[in-house]
Amino acid sequence: MAENLVRVCTAADLPPGNVKSFEVGDERVAVYNIDGTFYATEAQCTHAAADLGDGILEGDVIECSLHFGAFHVPSGKVVQPPCCIDLKTFRTEVKDGQVYVDLSAPAATAS
Ligand code: FES
């Protein structure tokens, strides 16, 4: 599929250990900075309607703030119930201090 990079924020907007949600086209996307590497997933928790941008990022795991389900951010895999459906991931790229998300491609770390 064609590359479709959309700028979401500056790298400086999101220091390591932080997560924030952004509207990217029709999609709400959670962007994570894990030790200086940026990742992106769909922002809505697959359990209900919580925004993972409001969740707690611990290492490479995002814990939902509503019922405390959790996902491994690089792969999108569920690691803690009540979630049972993995998150969609998106490819990210940092260029000239700007963070871009590609809604047409999963993260290289997704499995
Ligand atoms: Fe996220 Fe329930 S909405 S765990």
- The top level CATH class name: Mainly Beta
In whole angstroms, how far apart are the ends? 18 Å
Taking the sheet with the most strands, its summary is:
6 strands, antiparallel
Q: Into which percent range does the helicity of residues fall? A: under 10%
Q: Judging from the principal axes of the Cα atoms, what is the shape?
A: globular
Q: What structural class results from the helix and strand content?
A: mainly beta
Task: Please provide the ordered H/E string of secondary-structure elements.
Answer: EEEEEEEEEE
Identify the CATH architecture: 3-layer Sandwich
Tell me the strand order in the biggest sheet. Answer: 1-10-9-4-3-2
CATH superfamily: Rieske [2Fe-2S] iron-sulphur domain
Q: Which radius of gyration do the C-alpha atoms yield?
A: 13 Å
- Low-confidence blocks of residues: none
Find the CATH topology: Rieske Iron-sulfur Protein
Number of helices: 0
Strand coverage percent: over 45%
Mean pLDDT: 94
Tally the structural domains.
1
Count of extended strands: 10
